């Protein structure tokens, strides 16, 4: 009997013991459990990946909404600024027109006052000149007659 024969018999006995102790079934069960765990981890990873993609899409959507809202706010602010600028221009133009009218009225009033002062001065000078001429040329008799005629004229005007 050869050593190879004994090695073969030892191998067959070893394999028989392994089969008797159900080692291949345990190895299969262990491999199946490991494969199930790997499949479960893959499913969890796939679920997490899908959730991350959904969250990323939601953040992109929110960012776009925020950008849109920001652009609307900027556009609204620009419209308000333009409206305020237009209103300020209109108010300043109205103010300038009112100030010009007021200045023109003051100038016209000053001109009227100056003309009235000149007229009053001319009347005073004319009255003074007439008074001095009358005083020089008039005697007591003529003055009395003028006084009487003036008095009668005033009486007639009052009645």
UniProtKB/TrEMBL annotation:
It is found in: Cell inner membrane; Cell membrane. InterPro entries: ATP_synth_b/b'su_bac/chlpt (IPR002146), ATP_synthase_B_chain (IPR050059). Keywords: ATP synthesis, Cell membrane, CF(0), Coiled coil, Hydrogen ion transport, Ion transport, Membrane, Transmembrane, Transmembrane helix, Transport. One of its GO terms (cellular component) is proton-transporting ATP synthase complex. It holds the Pfam family ATP-synt_B. The chain crosses the membrane at residues 6-23. It is a single-pass membrane protein. One of its GO terms (molecular function) is proton-transporting ATP synthase activity, rotational mechanism. Residues 31-120 form a coiled coil. Component of the F(0) channel, it forms part of the peripheral stalk, linking F(1) to F(0). The b'-subunit is a diverged and duplicated form of b found in plants and photosynthetic bacteria. HAMAP family: ATP_synth_b_bprime (MF_01398). F-type ATPases have 2 components, F(1) - the catalytic core - and F(0) - the membrane proton channel. F(1) has five subunits: alpha(3), beta(3), gamma(1), delta(1), epsilon(1). F(0) has three main subunits: a(1), b(2) and c(10-14). The alpha and beta chains form an alternating ring which encloses part of the gamma chain. F(1) is attached to F(0) by a central stalk formed by the gamma and epsilon chains, while a peripheral stalk is formed by the delta and b chains. PANTHER family: ATP SYNTHASE SUBUNIT B (PTHR33445:SF1), ATP SYNTHASE SUBUNIT B', CHLOROPLASTIC (PTHR33445). Belongs to the ATPase B chain family. This is ATP synthase subunit b.
């Amino acid at each position: 009997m050869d050593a190879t024969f004994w090695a073969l018999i030892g191998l067959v006995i070893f394999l028989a013991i392994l089969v008797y102790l159900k080692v291949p079934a345990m190895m299969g069960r262990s491999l199946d459990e490991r494969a199930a765990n790997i499949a479960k981890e893959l499913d969890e990873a796939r679920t997490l990946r899908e959730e991350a993609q959904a969250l990323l899409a939601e953040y992109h959507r929110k960012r776009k909404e925020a950008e849109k809202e920001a652009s609307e706010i900027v556009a609204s602010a620009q419209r308000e600024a333009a409206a305020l600028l237009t209103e300020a221009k209109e108010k300043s133009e109205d103010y300038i027109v009112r100030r010009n009218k007021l200045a023109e009225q003051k100038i016209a009033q000053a001109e009227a006052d100056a003309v009235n002062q000149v007229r009053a001065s001319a009347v005073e000078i004319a009255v003074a000149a007439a008074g001095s001429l009358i005083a020089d040329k008039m005697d007591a008799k003529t003055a009395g007659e003028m006084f009487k005629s003036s008095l009668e004229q005033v009486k007639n005007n009052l009645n």
